[in-house]
């Protein structure tokens, strides 16, 4: 696809000359005759580079530059200006212009070089971002230093290298998909495909073709042959997500492949063998689904060779500080904000919440905090304002329905945090003041997810 250049100038003939020169080089060209139109096109079209006059009647180039920075910070903008007013040029660069061309543009070479450089920079940036993302995904780093998550990681480590089918159960947002990917990444199949199929989202009439593929002309609309998910995953892992919502017709078909290891494409004559490891996940109680007659028992036993359960976040609140800190750092980077941190009270407030949406809910909340809070430190009041379920620490904690051990844990957390604060995070002094062994205090802090303190 050719790159798109937006040419902005209020003079029609300049627009035309520049457009022609760029088109002849193979670029797709869009034009705008003023600042407002330019902003609209930048917002609406896949513009890759902008070449723009500074002096325009409605909204001048510098203003456009400034606003475009806010919506498309990475978009390279080349500014053109008449009489080399050094101040204008300086302001333009300060506002992030990529390059500057002096008008009239008599040599079209200069224009082409500026555009080419701008595109090179842009593609380098995109490549970098993609690499960073890939590295982030490749690590598949699940967070969780607490005992519940450590048990989970240990189970994943032991299960992954085997060929055993895995059934992952857990509430929404507890990381089931991350576990499935981690199993694949740690298995011998890691260099082969990981294919995901959401069993709840396949239209009834497409089940067979989705699973097994079809030959060309197998049914109306089958204009080309297509490989099904089992075939796509050959040699690798097939992740059957939301398996508890698999329609009965699909259950029968999946069972057959799992039993026989063979399949035929829809409309195909040939029997294909496939070597696929199936990892399934559900937030439903599959055994109850079996009892209710909604899920085939024979399929359940075939899928559930190794059961893995992802714990609810309320059962490992000790990991909240680390999760929140990581999500905050990521959110700041993604939204182009300066690094922020969570205040001690803010973390404690996060730990008073029960997180029915689990890690996903925490991640979304932290992203909101990163976008909406100003200042480098997020406080407890920011958390409470955005999370009605959370309470400020040190408030009235005797809420109805809280289990005794939860209240004790909360009280302990507050006592330890307050004591640390009073002793400038010096653990030895804090332990002495509380009448505890230093090692005991350390253990307590770890259990409560408190990470601070100097010797
Ligand atoms: N231990 C963890 N460390 C880091 N991120 C996590 C962890 N657990 C979950 N997440 C993040 O939380 C979000 C939800 O995770 P995931 O999609 O794996 O959950 P799920 O159990 O499949 O949820 P659902 O049942 O709603 O599909 C994702 O953004 C994921 O990256
Ligand atoms: Mg999921």
Automatic annotation (TrEMBL):
<dbReference type="InterPro" id="IPR002078">
    <property type="entry name" value="Sigma_54_int"/>
</dbReference>
<dbReference type="InterPro" id="IPR003593">
    <property type="entry name" value="AAA+_ATPase"/>
</dbReference>
<dbReference type="InterPro" id="IPR009057">
    <property type="entry name" value="Homeodomain-like_sf"/>
</dbReference>
<dbReference type="InterPro" id="IPR002197">
    <property type="entry name" value="HTH_Fis"/>
</dbReference>
<protein>
    <submittedName>
        <fullName>Two component, sigma54 specific, transcriptional regulator, Fis family</fullName>
    </submittedName>
</protein>
<keyword id="KW-0067">ATP-binding</keyword>
<dbReference type="Pfam" id="PF25601">
    <property type="entry name" value="AAA_lid_14"/>
</dbReference>
<keyword id="KW-0804">Transcription</keyword>
<keyword id="KW-0902">Two-component regulatory system</keyword>
<dbReference type="InterPro" id="IPR058031">
    <property type="entry name" value="AAA_lid_NorR"/>
</dbReference>
<feature type="modified residue" description="4-aspartylphosphate">
    <location>
        <position position="53"/>
    </location>
</feature>
<feature type="domain" description="Response regulatory">
    <location>
        <begin position="4"/>
        <end position="118"/>
    </location>
</feature>
<dbReference type="GO" id="GO:0043565">
    <property type="term" value="F:sequence-specific DNA binding"/>
</dbReference>
<dbReference type="Pfam" id="PF00158">
    <property type="entry name" value="Sigma54_activat"/>
</dbReference>
<keyword id="KW-0805">Transcription regulation</keyword>
<keyword id="KW-0547">Nucleotide-binding</keyword>
<dbReference type="GO" id="GO:0000160">
    <property type="term" value="P:phosphorelay signal transduction system"/>
</dbReference>
<keyword id="KW-0238">DNA-binding</keyword>
<keyword id="KW-0597">Phosphoprotein</keyword>
<dbReference type="InterPro" id="IPR001789">
    <property type="entry name" value="Sig_transdc_resp-reg_receiver"/>
</dbReference>
<dbReference type="Pfam" id="PF00072">
    <property type="entry name" value="Response_reg"/>
</dbReference>
<dbReference type="InterPro" id="IPR027417">
    <property type="entry name" value="P-loop_NTPase"/>
</dbReference>
<dbReference type="Pfam" id="PF02954">
    <property type="entry name" value="HTH_8"/>
</dbReference>
<dbReference type="InterPro" id="IPR025943">
    <property type="entry name" value="Sigma_54_int_dom_ATP-bd_2"/>
</dbReference>
<dbReference type="InterPro" id="IPR025944">
    <property type="entry name" value="Sigma_54_int_dom_CS"/>
</dbReference>
<feature type="domain" description="Sigma-54 factor interaction">
    <location>
        <begin position="142"/>
        <end position="371"/>
    </location>
</feature>
<dbReference type="InterPro" id="IPR011006">
    <property type="entry name" value="CheY-like_superfamily"/>
</dbReference>
<dbReference type="GO" id="GO:0006355">
    <property type="term" value="P:regulation of DNA-templated transcription"/>
</dbReference>
<dbReference type="GO" id="GO:0005524">
    <property type="term" value="F:ATP binding"/>
</dbReference>
